[in-house]
Fold these 2 entries.
Entry 1:
Amino acid sequence: MSETQEYVPTVIKAEEMDPKFKYRISKKHGAERLMLCFQCGTCTADCPISRFSDFYRPRRIARMVQLGLKDMLLSNDALWLCSTCFTCVDHCPQNVEIAGVVRVLRNIVVQEKGVMPLVYKELASNLLETGYVYSISESRHKRREMQGLPRLPKPNLEHISKIFEAAGFSKILENVSTFEKVKS
Ligand code: SF4
Ligand code: SF4
């Protein structure tokens, strides 16, 4: 994966555009309304990640998909910056689910390039092994108890494992390559 770079507007060459890309993405769950984006910029104005990233703008992601700039998008680590807060989804006047579009793009990166950030692999492995994305130490459980809070529910690890297997995610976790830093 390439690192994210400072965004410098460039002339787009016709050969960089894949006209079928937007149709492929729009068929995926969560990305169906992508073509309704009219570039108002509300999503970018509200996106917490856009405030500190030079490149990451949900509006830009939508436009790049519409233009079919597939390789440029899929090779940019900035895709992994989205925190999935859904602010863009809540505020879009066209009900475009940009967070869903980003998820679809990430899935393509994992499936076709076999790569994901290390932290994602670690979170998924934690979920598989403990039922929680972050491992929760016994001292945390004890502190909850001391404060009169109920014990956290015991996850059903067998069910989680079955879901991972059925979704093909166990195999992906075994084979995926990772990279450590996602630059903004
Ligand atoms: S808020 Fe919606 S319509 Fe406006 S730029 Fe973002 S995705 Fe497009
Ligand atoms: S879901 Fe992602 S793209 Fe949308 S506002 Fe949050 S960080 Fe930005």
Note: Residues 37-43, 58-59, 62, 92-94, 96, 98 surround iron/sulfur cluster (ligand 1) (CB under 6 Å).
Entry 2:
Amino acid sequence: MIAIVKLLDGWSRWVFACASTPPEIFAGFIQQRSPTVRASLIGSHLDTVPNAGAYDGILGIVLAIALLEALQGRRLPFGIEVVGFSEEEGVRFGTPFIGSLALVGRLDQQLLDVHDAQGISVRKAIENFGLNPEEIPQAELKERHTGYLELHIEQGPVLEKLNLPLAAVEAIAGQSRLSLHFLDAPTMPVTTPMHLRCDAITGAAEWISAVEPLGSRRAWIGRDCRKDRSQAWSGRT
Ligand SMILES: [Zn+2]
């Protein structure tokens, strides 16, 4: 966490050097705001998933600040606000989009009570960071915001295969996460004929095989079905 604090501190000073107003930090994300004019947001997420590489998220924030710097104080007819989202990937708390939910005013109090693997709640983590969870509502976007731009590395093979260095996306992937539990019917395998057995692992395997082609059949751009984690417990003796 000390590294993140240092990182935010360094970035905040960089943003301040390039902009007319000081940056603010809410719920662990930085935001530099121009309070009076219509404004566009540029940014990305601060956290990343394991093995996502050195540029996931971070590149979008660094480039946003670099764009401000490149303006060299030149005024545009609209404001530019830099935003860096925390806990976008849900790795620590198992719940994604915490920073961006705060930005759109949809971070409810229940979410602040979610705990990480060490038993630290989102609320406590925000306090440990030196911030006040009560100030989260101040992060909510107002009507003067006109758009959001995110520069992000491609984390798939499409552009690489087309030998294209840059592209604009036409759609963005949303996520629905479900936790499914497959239960055995209590039967004795040796004495139960195959057609009367009900095995959890077999059922899960059938479900996985059915979901896989479903994702491929849909014509929607970016549609995919993933089976992230599976665990099996056996109570049978
Ligand atoms: Zn990312």
Note: The chain has two domains: 2-162, 176-237.
